[in-house]
C-alpha cells in the first residue's frame, strides 16, 4: 500500500473537522466569536479587577512553595543580618526567607500585595461605575449582589493574606480581630476561642488562616467571579444610549477580531503595571516590623487601605458600653458596633439597593441602557453620600498620621471625624443633587438655544449678547425642537465640526491648527481644508 | 474592505449560500454574523494598505515587540547575574528587585501596548448590532416548564402519602447535623478552660509563691532600676512569661513622681485598691481594654497612656480611667510589692479581667 503524502496545509482544517466530529463545537464557537460587546472606557474597570486576580493566583501559587504556615518558634538565621538570632515564628522566618533568600521572591511577594490592593481598588471603582450609571437595575440585580459579595470576600482574602507573615504589624491586626470577635454578644468568647484554638494567639491561627487564604477563599472567589462573568455574558453588557442604540440591541464590536485583541493587550498592560509597582514600590516591608510580640506596637499601625474604613469607624466610636444587670452582669462592648454591626448594615444596604430603588420608583422594567449620573439626581446623591461616608471613615483610619504630619491635635482629629461622619454625607448628598440639576439644566439650555460660540455681538441698543449656534433648525422664536436622549450634548463648537478639533500633540503640537471659520454667519458649511502633515522641510 | 449598510433587520435579506464559490471570506463571516442576529453596519479599514501610515504603525508595533524581547532578556540577565543576596549597606543588591520590576514591567507593557496598537489602529473599525433576546421566554414555554415541575411533585405524591414527606424530613435533619458535627465538634474550644480568660502569668504559683516582675530578657527588677517619671514593660517571671504564650500578661511598671503618686494613691483607695501601689510605683496592664493592642505610648507630663491602634487614652493617676477614645473600661492594675531580696513581685494576679471586653465578663 502506498503511503499517502502528508499535507501540512490541510492539517488545521482536518484537526478542526475531527474536533467538531466529536464535540460539535462549530455552532457554539461561531456564536462566541461573533458576540457583540459595547465599548466604553468605564467598562474596563471590572477587567482590571479580573486581571489583578489572575496575577494574584499566579504569584500566590509561587509564594506557597516557600511559605511555611506554622507558629512554632525558630531562631532566624537567614541573610537579613539585623534580625539574625531573633526568636520568631516559622511563618515569619519563612516570609523573611521568601524576601531575602529566595531569588526573585521579594518581587513576587510585592507583586502579590500590589495586585491585591489593585484588585480591591478596581472592585470599588467598578462598583461605583455600576452604581452611578444604573447598571445594577433589572435584570442585573443578581450580578450586583454577587459583585458586592466579591468586595467582602476580597476583603477577607486580603485580611487573611496580610496576616500570614506573622510580623509585628499583622499580629497587631490579628489581636484586634480577636477583640472584634470577642465583642459579639453571647457567643463572642466561644467563637474566638474556637477560631484561635484557645486563648489568643494560640498556635494554630496561622495555619487556619493559611488554608482559608489559599483554598477556601480563593475557591469562593473563583466561583463568584465565574458566576459574575457568566451572567454578564448571558445577560449581555449594558450600553450607553446613542445613535442606533436601543434597549433591545447591543451596538459594539464582535468579540473577534478586534475586541479580544484589545482585551489581551489590556491584560498585559495591567500585568505590566503590577510588575512595575511590585519592583519599584516597596510594600509591607515586614523585616522592619520584627516578629509579633504582644507588647510591641508602633504608632501609625495602619491596615491595608480597604480595611482602613473599619479602623476609622472603630476610632470614632464613642465609649458607649452597654451593661445588662442580670446575674453577674453582661456587657456589650463599644467595639461591637463599628466592627460587627456597621459592616453588617453595609452588606445589607449595598446588596439590597437595587430592590429598594425599584420599589421606591415602582420601576420593574428591563433596563439595558445606562443612565448618566446627572439624570438620576437622587441616586447620584445617595452614592455621593455613601462615598463621603467611606472617605471620612478611611481618613479617620489614618487620623494619627494626619495629626502627626499636619501638627493637629489627635483628639481634634477624632472629633472632626465624629462630627464629619454625621455632617459630610448629607452635605455631599445636597451638593451632588444640586450639581446634577445644574448639569441637567445646562444640557436642556444647549438643546434649546444652541452652543456658545464665544462670539460677542453688540446690539444696536448697546446690549452685548453671545451668539449661539443652534443644534437644529430653529422655530419662529429661535428655539430648537431637540429632545434630550440621555447622552452627551455637544457643548463646544469643535464638537459640531464648526471649529477644527483640538490640536493634537502631548508636549508640542504635532499638526497645524486647522483653518477656523471666521464669520459666525456661516460657521459649519465650508469644508475644512485637508490637513497637511508637517515634514522636516527637507523636501522643499 | 469597507462596507457601510443601512441598518436593516437580518430577516429582510436573502441568506447567502456559504458554498457559493463566488462568496468571499468576508461574505461568509458576515453571513455567520447574520445567523447570530448580528448586523455589521459599519466595517472600515483604518489604514490604507501599503500607505505610509500603515508602514509607520507596523514599525511602531514591531518596535514594541522588540522592546519586549530586549527587556525580557535584560530581566533574565539581571535575574541570573546581578548580586541579589542581602548585605548591610547600600550595595547593588538593593537594586535587584527594582531592576527586575522595571525590566519585567517594560517587557509586559511592550507586549501589551504592541497588541493594543495592533488591534486598535491596524484592524478595521466596526459597528455591529446584535439583538439582545432578553425578553422573557414564550408564555407557553413557561407554562410547560412549570407544569412539568409540578407534575414531578404529583408523581412523587407527597400529598397523598404524607408519611413519606415527614419521614424524609425527619431523616434528613439529623444527616445535616452530622455534616456540621465534626466541624463544630472539632473546632469548639471552651474559652473558660482553666479559667484562662481571667488569669494571667502573674497568678501565684503552686504553694502561693509570688511571681516576680521581669524584663524582656528575664532579669528581675529593683525599685532603683526605674527612675522617677520613667516606665518599663515587665512580664511575669515564669517560663515563657515574655513570649506570646502569655499575651495577656505584659504590664507597664511606672515610677510616678511624688505629687502624681499621691494622686494615684488617693484614686486607688477610692477604688478600694489602697495597697496596689508600692511606694511611688504602680503597675497597669499594657493590653488595651478596647481591642487588645498594647497601650504603650506613655506621656510623662500628663500621665496619660495612649493606645496607638485606636487612640484610647487612659489617665494613670486616676486608676487608668479611659478619658478619650473608644475604650470604655480602665486598665486593670497589678498589685505589687518588693520581696525580701529587693525585687518587685506581684502580690496576687490581676483582680480585673485583662484585655478586650466580652459578653460574660463579670
UniProtKB/TrEMBL annotation, chain A:
It is a multi-pass membrane protein. One of its GO terms (biological process) is respiratory electron transport chain. Residues 525-540 have a biased composition (Basic and acidic residues). GO terms for molecular function: metal ion binding; oxidoreductase activity; quinol-cytochrome-c reductase activity. Residues 515-540 are annotated as: Disordered. The keyword Nuclease does not apply. Its EC number is 7.1.1.8. It catalyses: a quinol + 2 Fe(III)-[cytochrome c](out) = a quinone + 2 Fe(II)-[cytochrome c](out) + 2 H(+)(out). The chain crosses the membrane at residues 42-67, 113-132, 144-164, 209-233, 264-283, 335-356, 376-395, 415-433. It is found in: Cell membrane. Keywords: Cell membrane, Electron transport, Heme, Iron, Membrane, Metal-binding, Respiratory chain, Translocase, Transmembrane, Transmembrane helix, Transport. Residues 15-241 form the Cytochrome b/b6 N-terminal region profile domain. Its cofactor is heme. GO terms for cellular component: plasma membrane. The keyword Membrane applies. This is Cytochrome bc1 complex cytochrome b subunit. It comes from Micromonospora mirobrigensis.
Automatic annotation (TrEMBL), chain B:
It is found in: Cell membrane. GO terms for cellular component: plasma membrane. Residues 279-345 form the Rieske domain. The chain crosses the membrane at residues 61-84, 96-118, 163-188. Residues 1-20 are annotated as: Disordered. GO terms for molecular function: 2 iron, 2 sulfur cluster binding; metal ion binding; monooxygenase activity; oxidoreductase activity, acting on paired donors, with incorporation or reduction of molecular oxygen. It is a multi-pass membrane protein. Keywords: 2Fe-2S, Cell membrane, Disulfide bond, Electron transport, Iron, Iron-sulfur, Membrane, Metal-binding, Oxidoreductase, Respiratory chain, Transmembrane, Transmembrane helix, Transport. It comes from the Bacteria. Its main location: membrane. Belongs to the Rieske iron-sulfur protein family. PANTHER family: CYTOCHROME B-C1 COMPLEX SUBUNIT RIESKE, MITOCHONDRIAL. Iron-sulfur subunit of the cytochrome bc1 complex, an essential component of the respiratory electron transport chain required for ATP synthesis. The bc1 complex catalyzes the oxidation of menaquinol and the reduction of cytochrome c in the respiratory chain. The bc1 complex operates through a Q-cycle mechanism that couples electron transfer to generation of the proton gradient that drives ATP synthesis. This is Cytochrome bc1 complex Rieske iron-sulfur subunit. It comes from Micromonospora mirobrigensis. The lineage of its organism: Bacteria, Bacillati, Actinomycetota, Actinomycetes, Micromonosporales.
Amino acid at each position: 500500500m502506498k503511503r499517502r503524502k502528508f499535507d501540512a496545509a490541510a492539517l488545521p482544517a482536518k484537526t478542526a473537522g475531527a474536533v467538531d466530529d466529536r464535540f460539535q463545537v462549530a455552532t457554539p464557537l461561531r456564536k462566541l466569536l461573533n458576540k457583540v460587546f459595547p465599548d466604553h472606557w468605564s467598562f474596563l474597570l471590572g477587567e482590571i479587577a479580573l486581571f489583578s486576580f489572575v496575577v494574584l493566583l499566579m504569584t500566590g501559587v509561587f509564594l506557597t512553595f516557600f511559605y511555611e504556615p506554622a507558629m512554632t518558634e525558630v531562631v532566624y538565621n537567614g541573610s537579613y543580618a539585623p534580625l539574625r538570632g531573633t526568636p520568631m515564628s516559622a511563618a515569619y522566618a519563612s516570609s523573611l526567607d521568601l524576601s531575602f533568600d529566595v531569588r526573585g521572591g521579594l518581587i513576587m511577594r510585592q507583586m502579590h500585595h500590589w495586585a491585591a490592593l489593585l484588585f480591591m481598588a478596581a472592585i470599588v471603582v467598578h462598583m461605583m461605575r455600576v452604581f452611578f450609571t444604573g447598571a445594577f437595575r433589572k435584570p442585573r440585580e443578581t450580578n450586583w449582589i454577587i459583585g458586592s459579595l466579591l468586595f467582602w470576600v476580597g476583603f477577607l482574602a486580603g485580611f487573611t493574606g496580610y496576616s500570614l507573615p506573622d510580623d509585628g504589624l499583622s499580629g497587631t491586626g490579628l489581636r484586634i480581630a480577636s477583640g472584634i470577635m470577642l465583642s459579639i454578644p453571647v457567643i463572642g468568647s466561644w467563637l474566638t476561642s474556637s477560631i484561635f484554638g484557645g486563648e489568643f494567639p494560640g498556635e494554630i491561627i496561622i495555619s487556619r488562616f493559611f488554608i482559608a487564604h489559599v483554598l477556601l477563599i480563593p475557591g469562593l472567589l473563583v466561583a463568584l467571579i465565574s458566576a459574575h462573568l457568566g451572567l454578564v455574558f448571558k445577560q449581555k453588557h449594558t450600553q450607553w444610549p446613542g445613535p442606533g442604540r436601543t434597549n433591545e440591541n447591543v451596538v459594539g464590536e464582535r468579540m473577534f477580531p478586534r475586541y479580544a485583541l484589545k482585551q489581551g493587550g489590556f491584560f498585559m498592560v495591567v500585568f505590566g503595571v503590577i510588575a512595575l509597582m511590585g519592583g519599584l514600590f516597596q510594600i509591607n516591608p515586614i523585616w522592619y516590623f520584627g516578629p509579633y510580640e504582644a507588647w510591641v506596637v508602633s504608632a501609625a499601625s495602619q491596615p491595608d487601605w480597604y480595611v482602613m474604613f473599619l479602623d476609622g469607624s472603630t476610632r470614632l466610636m464613642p465609649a458607649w458600653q452597654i451593661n445588662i444587670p442580670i446575674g453577674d452582669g453582661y456587657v456589650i462592648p463599644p467595639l461591637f458596633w463599628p466592627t460587627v454591626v456597621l459592616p453588617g448594615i453595609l452588606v445589607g444596604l449595598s446588596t439590597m439597593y437595587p430592590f429598594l430603588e425599584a420599589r421606591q420608583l415602582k420601576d420593574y422594567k428591563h433596563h439595558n441602557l445606562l443612565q448618566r449620573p446627572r439624570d438620576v439626581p437622587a441616586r447620584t446623591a445617595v452614592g455621593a453620600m455613601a462615598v463621603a461616608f467611606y472617605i471620612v471613615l478611611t481618613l479617620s483610619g489614618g487620623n494619627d498620621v494626619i495629626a502627626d504630619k499636619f501638627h493637629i491635635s489627635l483628639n481634634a482629629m477624632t472629633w472632626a471625624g465624629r462630627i464629619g461622619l454625621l455632617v459630610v454625607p448629607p452635605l455631599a448628598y445636597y451638593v451632588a443633587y444640586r450639581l446634577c440639576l445644574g448639569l441637567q439644566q445646562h444640557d436642556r439650555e444647549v438643546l434649546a438655544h444652541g452652543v456658545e460660540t464665544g462670539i460677542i455681538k453688540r446690539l444696536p441698543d448697546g446690549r452685548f449678547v453671545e451668539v449661539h449656534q443652534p443644534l437644529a433648525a430653529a422655530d419662529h422664536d429661535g428655539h430648537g425642537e431637540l429632545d434630550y436622549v440621555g447622552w452627551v450634548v455637544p457643548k463646544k463648537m469643535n464638537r459640531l465640526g464648526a471649529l477644527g478639533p483640538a490640536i493634537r500633540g502631548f508636549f508640542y503640537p504635532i499638526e497645524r491648527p486647522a483653518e477656523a471659520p471666521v464669520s459666525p454667519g456661516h460657521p459649519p458649511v465650508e469644508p475644512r481644508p485637508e490637513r497637511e502633515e508637517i515634514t522636516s522641510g527637507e523636501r522643499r | 474592505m469597507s462596507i457601510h449598510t443601512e441598518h436593516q433587520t437580518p430577516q429582510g435579506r436573502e441568506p447567502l449560500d456559504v458554498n457559493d464559490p463566488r462568496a468571499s471570506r468576508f461574505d461568509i463571516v458576515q453571513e455567520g454574523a447574520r445567523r447570530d442576529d448580528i448586523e455589521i453596519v459599519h466595517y472600515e479599514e483604518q489604514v490604507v494598505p501599503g500607505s505610509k501610515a500603515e508602514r509607520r504603525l507596523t514599525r511602531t508595533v514591531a518596535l514594541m515587540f522588540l522592546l519586549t524581547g530586549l527587556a525580557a532578556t535584560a530581566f533574565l540577565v539581571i535575574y541570573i547575574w546581578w548580586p541579589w543576596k542581602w548585605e548591610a549597606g547600600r550595595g547593588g543588591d538593593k537594586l535587584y528587585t527594582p531592576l527586575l520590576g522595571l525590566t519585567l514591567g517594560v517587557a509586559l507593557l511592550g507586549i501589551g501596548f504592541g497588541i493594543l496598537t495592533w488591534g486598535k489602529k491596524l484592524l478595521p473599525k466596526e459597528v455591529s448590532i446584535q439583538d439582545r433576546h432578553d425578553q422573557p421566554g414564550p408564555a407557553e414555554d413557561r407554562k410547560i416548564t412549570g407544569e412539568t415541575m409540578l407534575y414531578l411533585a404529583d408523581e412523587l405524591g407527597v400529598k397523598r402519602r404524607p408519611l413519606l414527606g415527614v419521614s424524609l424530613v425527619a431523616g434528613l435533619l439529623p444527616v445535616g447535623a452530622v455534616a456540621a458535627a465534626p466541624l463544630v465538634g472539632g473546632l469548639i474550644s471552651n474559652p473558660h478552660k482553666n479559667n484562662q480568660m481571667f488569669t494571667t502569668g502573674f497568678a501565684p504559683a503552686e504553694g502561693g509563691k509570688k511571681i516576680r516582675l521581669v524584663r524582656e530578657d528575664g532579669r528581675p527588677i529593683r525599685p532603683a532600676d526605674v527612675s522617677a517619671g520613667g516606665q518599663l514593660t515587665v512580664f511575669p517571671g515564669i517560663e515563657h512569661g515574655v513570649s506570646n504564650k502569655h499575651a495577656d500578661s505584659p504590664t507597664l511598671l511606672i515610677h510616678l513622681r511624688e505629687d502624681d503618686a499621691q494622686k494615684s494613691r488617693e484614686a486607688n483607695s477610692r477604688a478600694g485598691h489602697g495597697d496596689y501601689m508600692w511606694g511611688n510605683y504602680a503597675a497597669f496592664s499594657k493590653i488595651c481594654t478596647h481591642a487588645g493592642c498594647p497601650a504603650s505610648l506613655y506621656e510623662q507630663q500628663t500621665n496619660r497612656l495612649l493606645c496607638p491602634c485606636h487612640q484610647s487614652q487612659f489617665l494613670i493617676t486616676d486608676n487608668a480611667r479611659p478619658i478619650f477614645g473608644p475604650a470604655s473600661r480602665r486598665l486593670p492594675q497589678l498589685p505589687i510589692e518588693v520581696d525580701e531580696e529587693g525585687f518587685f513581685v506581684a502580690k496576687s494576679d490581676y483582680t480585673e479581667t485583662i484585655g478586650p471586653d466580652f459578653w460574660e465578663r463579670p
